[in-house]
Design brief:
CATH topology: Rossmann fold
CATH class: Alpha Beta
CATH superfamily: P-loop containing nucleotide triphosphate hydrolases
Strand content: 15-25%
């Protein structure tokens, strides 16, 4: 089945599914892992399937997701949740069918139901020095941890999962390898990390997919655009569209950061060879 037919089938299935706003936080294992690439690409891939998608950009310094989306928001998420701006006014002018993008600070807080006009709300999240997330990211239904197939990034991903499990009692994570040399290499990394997290942390870290090492990602960024929009036939675009198709099957847990239980006791540390 070609990509157009897949998109049409997925769009029909989503239209018939219950209208629930899914909140997804995308977290980098370490700086440069590619959380913005995944968050922005996934947002555009979901929009291609007919969803109304809102992307929250917590990179207040670089605002990379906002720039690559070509967005010109008139206000921030802080203003929307604080009641000083409506959501549609804050989003500003944008083409029909385009994703909505809002910048946000880590301090943004308020009634997240104000965002329920969107089918999916994606958060390009930024943790603080202790690994804590914003209210918006911490209250996500699903957490994506983005890493690279490199030893330092893999160990940082394990540390990120451990910290989020401790801070928020998160029990389920979705893993994405960015800039993978091959599908086999990505699968080996994801499988090993998933087993280690299950054994030593007692959490489910599910492999969600991988993006290939694709020069068109950097090329699209140089053009000031998202790879999904700039290069429809790019290998990274195909990977992001596959990731988007799988999102609907992810569980929507009732317990988020708003009502999670007390963090569990400190888990065991894995031996150094477990993450090799």
């Amino acid at each position: 089945m070609n990509s157009l037919a897949l998109d049409q089938a997925e769009s029909l299935r989503r239209m018939l599914a219950p209208r629930v706003t899914r909140r997804i936080a995308v977290v980098a294992s370490d700086p440069g892992a590619g959380a913005t690439t995944v968050a922005l690409g996934l947002a555009n891939a979901l929009a291609m399937q007919g969803e109304r998608v809102l992307l929250i950009d917590e990179d207040r310094a670089g605002a990379r997701a906002t720039r690559l989306a070509g967005a010109a928001p008139a206000a921030t998420l802080d203003a929307v949740l604080g009641g000083t701006a409506t959501l549609e006014a804050a989003l500003g002018q944008r083409p029909a069918g385009a994703i909505g993008v809002l910048p946000a600070s880590a301090q943004a807080s308020g009634d997240l139901q104000l965002l329920n006009g969107y089918r999916t709300v994606l958060n390009d999240a930024r943790g603080d020095a202790e690994g804590a997330l914003s209210q918006m990211a911490g209250a996500a239904h699903n957490l994506i941890v983005v890493l690279r197939a490199e030893p330092a990034s893999i160990k940082a991903a394990y540390a990120c999962i451990k910290q989020l499990n401790h801070l928020y009692a998160c029990r389920r994570f979705h893993l994405v390898v960015n800039a993978a040399a091959s599908d086999a290499a990505a699968s080996a990394v994801l499988g090993n990390l998933a087993r280690t997290a299950s054994q030593y942390l007692g959490v489910e870290a599910s492999p969600a997919g991988s993006l290939p090492l694709d020069p068109l990602v950097a090329r699209s960024a140089a053009l000031g655009r998202c790879v999904v929009e700039a290069f429809a036939a790019a290998p990274a675009t195909a990977a992001l569209r596959r990731l988007a198709t799988g999102v609907a099957a992810w569980p929507l847990p009732a317990a988020t950061a708003e009502n999670r239980s007390t963090p569990p006791a400190t888990p065991l540390a894995p031996p150094a060879t477990a993450l090799a």
